[in-house]
Amino acid sequence: MPHASPSLNRQQWLLGNAVLLISSLVGLIILQQYSNVDLWLANWMFDPASGQFPWRDQWLTAKLGHDWMKKLSVVLGVAVAWQLYRQQRLAGWQDLATRQWLVVGLSALLVPVLVTQFKHLSVLHCPWDLQQFGGHTPYLRLFDRLPLGVGAGQCYPAGHASSGSWLLGFIALWLPLERRQALIRIPLLLLPGLMLGWIQQLRGAHFLSHTLATLWLSWLIVSLLCAWLLWPQAKGASSCLAYESGTR
Fold it and tell me: What pLDDT digit, counting tens, does each position of 155-195 carry?
């Protein structure tokens, strides 16, 4: 039989994620405030001759990549809710598998909702609203203040990317007992959010940093949900031990 990877404890999970989140936040701030990567990519996607982003209204990006992907995300969320209901009826809330699905279900709910709330607090505008891309507002970096007479853009972080980034919650299905399998699946779980973010970048709806900020916030939410629900205390500890012994 293959040797099982050692399980994580809550302290290891929190410490590892704190280091990852802080270091990636520093990198994200540097990207947004002190580099021109966002503008360089947006310029590459923008067509000066026509004065617009060519992919903005194409069927592949506007209909399939935006409208239909958002609907698919809702369908997946409903499927997760149904699976959570079935698992809870079968084994109860103290069962580890139930709490794993609860992390996935709460991720499907909280990630899009909280990303949307952060967007409402943001002053940053979408690329297609900016003067250099045919719009009427100036380009602002992360910590820049709004000029007088310019309204808040409410375009940061990327909302549509959260339709895929909540899938990071599926990492809970391999935690805390199968840490190696969880790590292996992280790139695959990041891919939907990155893909949907890239589609919106092609359309001129977001910058790269907007997508990365959504992924950062999504991982923060998922990591906290895992820390809260996957390492039970008291009564839940016995079910966790039973689950672990059953997987060996």
Answer: 999 999 999 999 999 999 999 999 899 999 999 999 999 99
Helix 208-229 crosses helix 10-34 at what angle (to 10 degrees)?
170
CA atoms of 112 and 108, how far apart (whole Å): 7
pLDDT at 232: 73
Q: Do residues 182 and 226 lie in contact, with contact meaning Cβ atoms separated by under 8 Å?
A: no
DSSP annotation of 133 reads G
Cis peptide before 232 (omega within 30 of 0): no
- Using alpha carbons, select from 168, 170, 152, 164 the residue that is nearest to residue 199: 164
* Measured torsion, CA atoms of residues 14, 17, 19, 20, in degrees rounded to the nearest 10: 180
Measured distance CA(167)–CA(188) in Å, rounded: 10
Give the contacts of 116 (CB within 8 A, at least 6 positions apart).
159, 162
- Pairwise CA distance, residues 41 & 230, whole Å: 39
> Is it the case that residue 206 has pLDDT exceeding 50?
yes
7 and 179 Cβ atoms separated by less than 8 Å: yes
Which helix (DSSP H) or strand (DSSP E) does residue 85 occupy? helix 69-91
Chain centroid, CA 87 distance in Å: 25
Residue 245 structure tokens: 């012994």
Written as one letter, the residue type at 127 is: P
Say how far apart CA 110 and CA 84 lie, in whole Å: 16
The structure's pTM equals 0.90
Integer Cα distance of 58 and 62 in angstroms: 6
Shortest CA distance to 36 belongs to which of 200, 215, 156, 209?
209
